[in-house]
Each structure stands twice: as structure tokens, then as C-alpha cells.
């Protein structure tokens, strides 16, 4: 059965090529890694990474990868969950798919009992800072690998 609403699909052999075909605008390449890198990271972090294809009807429009209970400081002191990667296809941006993806992940995090939703972003022109701030994320004062760390409280 094909749904006509946007939805998330697990990455499978049947949709792998569609996922790999997702490309952001060229001016955004500096701000987000390509899907192929995300899938490689998911492969080596199978208990943590949660990659999904964003589909509208039968049309792939984006990709997201979440992280669940990642050892943030690599010392066992802090576990966090959130959005690792979000790639909306260049021709599909501005249609609400990014918001849909983030809200869907927020629902999944709530379902898992998570209270805080984390994301990082590259600051600067053509980056996603305004998008994340508009969804309610707030910088928490941390920096991770040159990226701003933002958090959204999940009530």
C-alpha cells in the first residue's frame, strides 16, 4: 500500500539507491555530509544510528539520521539523543519536509522517553541555524566539532 502523506521509511535494499540520490543544494554542501557518509556511519554505529528516507507518496524527498543514547563525551557520563543528519533534496526544500522530519523524530524520541532533543549545526551563511531556531531549538552554549549544539525540550 502506498501512502500519499509524507512518512519515514527504514533504509532497505529496495530504497537504498533513492536514499543515495538525495542531494542538497550545492551551496549547502559545506553544512551537511552526503547520505553515503551517513549510511557508512550508521553501519559502524548500528546500536546508535537510525537512518530513514523521507518519502512523500512514492517520491523520495530527503534523508534523516537520528542518534539514540550516544555517549556524548565518550566517557559514559552523558547520553544524548537527537538529529545527526538532515538532507532535504534541493528541489524539495521549502515544502515542509524538514519540519515534518524533525517533528517525526521528536515524536519518536518522546515515545522512547527522551526529554531533550539535541542537534548540531554549522553556523554561517546558507546553514540551517534559522531553521532549527524556528523549530524551537536553543543553543546550549556548547560546541561540537566546530558546530553549535542546540537543544529542544520535549514536554
Secondary-structure blueprint:
Blueprint: E1 6-10, H1 16-20, H2 35-44, E2 49-56, E3 59-71, E4 79-88, H3 97-111, E5 116-121, H4 129-134, E6 138-144, E7 147-153
Parallel strand pairs: 4-5
Antiparallel strand pairs: 1-2, 2-3, 3-4, 5-7, 6-7
**Overall 3D geometry?**
globular
User: Order of strands side by side in the largest beta sheet?
Assistant: 1-2-3-4-5-7-6
Order of secondary-structure elements? EHHEEEHEHEE
Q: How many DSSP-defined strands?
A: 7
Main sheet? 7 strands, mixed
Query: What is the percentage of strand-forming residues?
Result: 35-45%
How large is the radius of gyration?
15 Å
Low-confidence stretches: none
pLDDT average, as an integer?
95
Helix proportion: 10-25%
Q: How would you describe the overall organization of this protein?
A:
A hairpin with a 7-residue loop joins strand 3 and strand 4. It is built from four helices and seven strands; from the N terminus they run E-H-H-E-E-E-H-E-H-E-E. It has a seven-stranded mixed beta sheet with strand order 1-2-3-4-5-7-6, with helices on both faces. The mean pLDDT is 95. The chain starts with 5 loop residues before the first strand and ends with a strand. The chain has 155 residues and is an alpha+beta fold. It is globular and about 40 Å long. The chain has helices at residues 16-20, 35-44, 97-111, 129-134, and strands at 6-10, 49-56, 59-71, 79-88, 116-121, 138-144, 147-153.
Amino acid at each position: 500500500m502506498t501512502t500519499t502523506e509524507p512518512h519515514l521509511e527504514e533504509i532497505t535494499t529496495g530504497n537504498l539507491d533513492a536514499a543515495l540520490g538525495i542531494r542538497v543544494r550545492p551551496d549547502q554542501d559545506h553544512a551537511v555530509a552526503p547520505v553515503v557518509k551517513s549510511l557508512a556511519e550508521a553501519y559502524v554505529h548500528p546500536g546508535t544510528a537510525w537512518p530513514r528516507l523521507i518519502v512523500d507518496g512514492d517520491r523520495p524527498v530527503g534523508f534523516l539520521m537520528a542518534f539514540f543514547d550516544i555517549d556524548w563525551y565518550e566517557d559514559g557520563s552523558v547520553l544524548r539523543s537527537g538529529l545527526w543528519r538532515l538532507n532535504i533534496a534541493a528541489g524539495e526544500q521549502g515544502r515542509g519536509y524538514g519540519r515534518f522530519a524533525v517533528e517525526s523524530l521528536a515524536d519518536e524520541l518522546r515515545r522512547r522517553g527522551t526529554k531533550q532533543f539535541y542537534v548540531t549545526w554549522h553556523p554561517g551563511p546558507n546553514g540551517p541555524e534559522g531553521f532549527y531556531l524556528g523549530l524551537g531549538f536553543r543553543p546550549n552554549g556548547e560546541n561540537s566539532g566546530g558546530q553549535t549544539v542546540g537543544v529542544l525540550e520535549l514536554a
